[in-house]
Amino acid sequence: MNKIFSSSLILAFCLGSLVSCWEENSVSEYEAFGIIEENNGKLCMRDDNENLLVPAQSIYAFVSSGDRAWMLFTAERKPQKAETIEVNLYDISKLHECTLQVEGTDTIGNDGIALNKLWIAQDFLTFDMMVAAFDEYTLRNHSFVIYSDMQTRNDTLYMEFRHKAHGNVSRNNMLRTGATLRLNDLQFGRTSIVLALKITDLDEKTEIHYCRYTRKIQ
């Protein structure tokens, strides 16, 4: 998986002083996926390693509490696990939130993606991927949908990850982006289930990816 998210992401932004440091390679940069939460009156990120990342800059213009997001930042050291650490923000982006659709398969679209990684964390299913698009602005018009009949078979729920580019495709320009699905919204009547995700790649070949989701008991 590429370490650095493309600056072509929808809500990306840069801060001048940090860019200078970046170009001089005088700081260490890290990335994290997580959920935005408010802590002591400030928006922060609770990442997938349970760290609380506290940005020096305000992020209210880019994300809201409860959003699943990606963050690129600099810090004195790499966050470990379940600690609070202050970070200098270089870039942040809210992930595309997938809608769940149970009908209308011929209208969803099925443009391919290049999947970097697929995982479950914090009750979210997350896709880290490369998408063919003209630029960051046309990427805003892409849509991402999870299609499923929501019927379980042998403790497995079969789903399709569907991407519709609306014609905004350029195989000469690949942008890294992310999408996510709130698994708490799924109704499957059990605490643990296998998710089987059918994904179409850029060559129109399909592959099924499996992962187990265990719902947290409140």
Keywords:
15 strands, six-stranded mixed sheet, single chain, 218 residues, 3 helices
Could you give a short description of this structure?
The protein has 218 residues and is mainly beta. The protein has helices at 16-24, 105-108, 136-139, and strands spanning 28-39, 42-47, 52-55, 68-75, 84-94, 96-97, 99-101, 114-121, 124-132, 143-147, 152-153, 156-164, 174-182, 192-200, 206-214. It starts with 15 loop residues before the first helix and ends with a strand.
Q: Mind sketching the topology for me?
A:
Elements: H1 16-24, E1 28-39, E2 42-47, E3 52-55, E4 68-75, E5 84-94, E6 96-97, E7 99-101, H2 105-108, E8 114-121, E9 124-132, H3 136-139, E10 143-147, E11 152-153, E12 156-164, E13 174-182, E14 192-200, E15 206-214
Parallel strand pairs: 3-5, 6-13, 7-10, 12-14
Antiparallel strand pairs: 1-2, 1-4, 2-3, 4-5, 8-9, 9-13, 10-12, 11-12, 14-15
How is this structure best described in words?
The chain has helices spanning about 15-25, 105-110, 135-140; strands at about 30-40, 40-45, 50-55, 70-75, 85-95, 95, 100, 115-120, 125-130, 145, 150-155, 155-165, 175-180, 190-200, 205-215. It is mainly beta. The chain is globular and about 45 Å long.
**Contiguous runs where pLDDT drops below 50 for at least 5 residues:** 6-25
| Beta strand count | 15
Residues in helix, %: under 10%
Largest sheet properties? 6 strands, mixed
Cα-based radius of gyration, to the nearest Å: 18 Å
Secondary-structure-based class equals: mainly beta
Q: Averaging pLDDT over every residue, what do you get?
A: 86
Q: How many helical stretches?
A: 3
- Span of the ends, CA to CA: 33 Å
